[in-house]
Amino acid sequence: MKQRLLAMAAVAALLSAAPALAKEDEAPSKRFTAERVFDMEYATDPQVSPDGKTVVYVRHSMDKMTDRDTGHLWSIDLASGAHRPLVTDVSAGRPRWSPDGSRILYMSSNGNGPEMRLLYLDSGRSFSLAQFTEEGPSAATWSPDGKQVAFSMFVKGETPSFAKPLAPPEGAKWNDGVKVIDNLTFRFDGAGYLKDGTEQIFVLTVDGGTPRQVTFGEADLGGPQWLDNDTLLVSGNLAEDRDLDPVESEVYKIELADNSISALTSRDGPDLGPVVSPDGKTIAFRGYDDHLKAYEQANLYLMDADGGNVRELAADFPLEFGSIAWAPDGKSLFALCEDHGVLSVYNVSLNGKVSQVVTNVGGASIGRPYGEGSFSISEGRKPVIAYTAGFSDRPAEVATIGANGKDNKVLTELNADVLPFLDMAKVEEIHVASSADGREIEAWVALPPDFKADGSFPMILEIHGGPYAMYSPFFGSEIQRYAAEGYVTVWSNPRGSTGYGEEFAQLIDLAYPGNDYDDLMSVVDELVAKDYVSEDRLFITGGSGGGILTAWTVTKTDRFAAAASIKPVINWMTMALAGDIAQFVRRHWIRADPWSDPEAFLKFSPIRYVDKVTTPTMIMVGEEDWRTPAWEAEQFYTALKMNGVDTVYVRVPGSPHYIASRPSRLIAKTDNIMGWFAKYDPAKQKDEAEDSGED
Q1: Coil/strand/helix, residue 530
Q2: Within-domain flag for 300
Q3: 24-28, 123-127, 249-253: which has the minimum mean pLDDT?
């Protein structure tokens, strides 16, 4: 109890050092204060109707009473601009138009569990296609004739047992029965300890009724797509050793007449995301040959409907292909690609010619500025693309553009009631030559509202996770919070980041963390040289991959006044044996076994060099994080304590790896980080000392 009270007191002290929320009788601050997180709205999953006249999307808002990000369905008439609520009485998401455009399938919650509903647009009435008590469906998709939907859903399996438990006497209180685990992956972030069972494919008529299971067995299958009204395409791995090969998958065909399943692909490597051409004769899909690298880009392929004549499309295109969709005429495809810090939609002709249609797709979150977003395309001779538009000063909006790249329009202003009346941070883009090898590193700087380049401002270096991910110049509540409190805040894409080609991402293969540290320090050097920040007021933080880089950095330099390592990997040996992606870490990132080659794991582990740390360092992790479990953070915290380094360990109750999954967690994260930095800010320490002397 004493230890718990001490821990609570430490967190309370940090919060007291953080900026306070506005009092009710004070004028609202024009800065982006903590409570503004609850005011934010953003758009995701815009779906344009087949006739190109209407867009339905998910409008997200922050529910202050339930502390949750809640989605509702809204529609936009593209001719008149009418913007109207469609489903707002319950949380709703993943809208999908019927082929004829008369109905919308969507997922909701009836208060007792997930529910699949069908909305008739002519009457505005909806009904429940199916209700689910525990495990809900995902990836629901319409059949071409609009009479059925296919989806994947978890099916419970048989729990292993070696003894029949005794029945306790009536009224007795016995311990719960033992839990037997026999799977290599037995827990996963966001899900906790996994139930026995697999993801299987179901089909349901749109008249409602009981879903029909069409796949069975001990392997997961997902992402159903219709080849025709009687045949499905799915992705998965049916190999016997599938647990030992975490990236392997094939595209399979399922004949609904007899539920027979056959593989259409067979190479060593992932094949996934099949999309059928309008005439049903060609399948586009993504994948790559597995060379056991930590990162390999997904390429774009075509094959005939029977699996034959496989050919790569646009083999010389330098970027990775993300989600894809066929053009209505079947003569090209549209692909969403990470593209030098932003997302872009490209058109890919069947002869491999690639042209950009629209860029700055993204911004579909409010936490950190990751490159996220989506698009959809209508039918007809002049198809319309609906997409999430990203901005530096506001969260994602809904936008449309012609498939020819013309008539780009932003259709929403979801935060026009808030953000125009606040002093938001200005964002600058910079490019820096790395001290490691001169490679260009892209970065963005958020400048406080009262910024002037006089060398006095404190700086926060915010590092992205992944590490195979990409930051963007888009809105992030965390970035705006830091800047609003006076920190020049910089975020960048060091080597290993995606969106700059496979060669750039693979620079950290078997070398992470490594020269990405030099990239980050070069960005910091640039801000010091530009007189944007004070050399004495430098701070560093990052989550996940950014957490390990933060921990790694303080083992190599003492230039930062304080650090905050969030949900880090600290010891690759324990990560490769107990994290939820342990097999991927061992097989693809380290390519060794910790019991036979421990040095391969320890040489890139911050724990190996913890005796070099002198920087005051906060460690933070979610209590239900199974990606980088709490014991990773605890190893660094304990070692720092043993070495007499100022440190504090912050645990976020109920949180998985994504700490900002609830608004209050996002606020607690950023304000505790700033509270820690304020404690060690030389300028604030000087001010406090002067104030103390005056008293």
Answers
A1: coil
A2: no
A3: 24-28
Nearest to 460 by CA among 476, 478, 475: 478
For residues 306-329, b (16+ Cβ closer than 10 Å) or e, as one string? Answer: ebeebeebbeebebbbbbbbbbbe
In the sheet with 311-313, reading across from the earlier edge strand, the strands are: 271-276, 282-287, 299-304, 311-313
Type and span of the H or E element at 574: helix 572-578
Angstrom CA distances, 642 to 319, 332, 425, 604, 626, stand at 46, 61, 40, 21, 26
Residue type, 358: V
Dist CA 572 CA 582 (whole Å): 9
Q: HSE on the CB side for 637, CA within 13 Å?
A: 18
Residues 579-592 pLDDT 10s = 999 999 999 999 99
Q: Which two tokens stand for residue 603?
A: 């040489």
- Residue pointed to by tokens 């990775």: 320
CA dihedral 570, 572, 578, 584 (to 10 degrees): 130
Model confidence pLDDT, tens digit, residues 338-393: 999 999 999 999 999 999 999 999 877 788 999 899 999 999 999 999 999 999 99
Closest CA to 569 of 553, 586, 547: 547
**Amino acid identity, position 225:** Q
Rounded to an integer, what is the distance from CA 476 to the centroid of its chain?
13
The stretches of 307-451 forming alpha helices (DSSP H) are none
Tell me the residue range of the domain where 534 lies. 424-691
DSSP 491-519: EEE-TT-SSS-HHHHGGGTT--SSTHHHH
Record the tokens describing residue 327, joined without a space. Answer: 């053009």
**Cα torsion angle, 528, 534, 536, 542, sign:** negative
pTM of the entire predicted model: 0.93
Name the residue among 255, 68, 30, 261 with its Cα closest to residue 665. Answer: 68
Q: Give the pLDDT confidence score for residue 693 in this predicted structure.
A: 67
Contact, 284 vs 272, CB < 8 A? no
Structural domain count of the chain: 1
Contact 348, 330 (CB under 8 A): no
Please tell me the distance from the alpha carbon of residue 83 to that of residue 95, in angstroms, as a whole number. 16
pLDDT, position 27: 60
CATH number at residue 432: 3.40.50.1820
Neighbour-count burial of 608, counting CB atoms closer than 10 A to its CB (0-12 exposed, 13-18 middle, 19+ buried): middle
Residue 304 falls inside a structural domain: no
**Cα–Cα distance for residue pair 220/152, rounded to 1 Å:** 9
SS (H, E, C) 592-627: CCCCCCHHHHHCCCHHHHHHHCCCCEEEEEECCCCC
Q: Which amino acid would we find at residue 222?
A: G
**Residue 575 domain-assigned?**
yes
Angle at 377 between CA 230 and CA 499, to 5 degrees: 105
List the one residue out of 436, 539, 415, 430 whose CA is nearest residue 489: 539
CA distance 593 to 636: 22
Judge whether 332 lies within some domain.
Answer: no
Strands (E), 314-458: 324-326, 332-339, 342-349, 354-361, 375-377, 384-389, 397-402, 409-410, 426-433, 440-447
Distances (CA, A) of 19 to 327, 488, 539, 670: 51, 16, 17, 10
Q: Is 444 left (phi over 0), alpha (psi -120 to 50) or beta?
A: beta
pLDDT digits (tens, 9 = 90+) for 52-90: 999 999 999 999 999 999 999 999 999 999 999 999 988
Over range 258-277, report the average pLDDT: 97
Residue 81 to residue 680: CA distance in whole angstroms: 51
> Average pLDDT, stretch 97-113?
91
